[in-house]
Specification:
Rossmann fold; 2 domains; about 280 residues; 10 helices; alpha/beta; 10 strands
Length: about 280
């Protein structure tokens, strides 16, 4: 049974971080979870003198601790909060802290504007998504995320592999906790859903029939045979984003850590899904 008891929230004092804090606080209240606020202090670039580094480090540590204390007062007065300041790279510290505390969920905004689409592969978010074994909640495009932790529509992006069974169960549990509707979305990459060519329409119908049968079996094994299934054709990230907009979804749940195949479709597309999604993405 899934549970959310410990939430790790990396804090860099950015506008996106300030905007995401109310959502983290809402999730903490809803699930009665403890929150760890983590700030990573990095002071290596351009400093070759170890003595200068040692002299500046205590001041940076103190400033970060004061900043986290003020951040807690602004956003988490009613929640159980731990504050941690660590020296080192942000992605490495996030992953290490998540493992140390055995957290249930990492919640972090991304810098989802402009060049983010081109630079995502080198971002802290990308490294955390790749390395962390913990579910990761990300919000790419909205500086001020929805303040309520609840959502009325959750999409679960699933393929026809064995891990999809557990993923759908996880999404169904979260939907029940929120009193939300759940729709399972399966994207067929080889299908052009807009083509009116007679031959392509015939091929499309063939793949739709196969996908319907395959996903029906997955839903049955997940204990959700009556869940609404949405079949789309085309690029996975693009079609998931379009479906999220059409359904006014508040959250997209995708598989990530448990998809171990080198070419697992959802795993290889997870960064693009986060980048394009109009709403937060929870990567399980």
């Amino acid at each position: 049974m899934p549970s959310i008891k410990r939430i790790l929230f990396p804090v860099d004092f950015s506008e996106q971080c300030e905007g995401t804090a109310p959502v983290v606080a809402a999730w903490a209240r809803q699930f009665q979870a403890t929150v760890t606020l983590l700030h990573a202090v990095t002071l290596t670039q351009g400093i070759d003198d170890p003595g200068l580094y040692d002299a500046l480090q205590p001041a940076l540590q103190n400033a970060a601790e004061d900043g986290l204390a003020a951040f807690t007062q602004r956003h988490f007065e009613s929640a159980a909060v731990n504050r941690v300041v660590e020296a080192g790279g942000a992605a490495e510290r996030i992953v290490a802290q998540a493992q140390k505390e055995n957290v249930s969920l990492i919640m972090m905004p991304t810098r989802g504007h402009g060049a983010f689409r081109r630079l995502l592969m080198g971002s802290v978010t990308a490294k955390v998504l790749h390395d962390a074994r913990t579910p990761v909640w990300t919000n790419a495009h909205t500086p001020r995320a929805r303040r309520s932790g609840k959502t009325r529509m959750i999409l679960c992006a699933a393929d026809q592999t064995e891990p999809a069974v557990g993923l759908i169960r996880w999404a169904a549990w979260l939907a029940e906790q929120n009193g939300a509707a759940l729709k399972v979305v399966h994207v067929m990459q080889s299908v052009d859903e807009k083509s009116q060519n007679r031959g392509e329409r015939a091929v499309r119908q063939y793949w739709i029939t196969r996908a319907s049968a395959g996903m029906a079996a997955i839903l049955k094994r997940a204990g959700r045979p009556k869940s609404e299934l949405v079949l789309r054709g085309g690029d996975i990230a693009t079609m998931l984003a379009a479906t999220a907009r059409e359904e006014n979804a508040g959250l997209v749940v995708i598989g990530r850590g448990h998809i171990t195949r080198t070419l697992g479709a959802l795993r290889t597309n997870s960064l693009a899904i986060v980048c394009k999604s109009p709403c937060p993405v929870l990567s399980v």
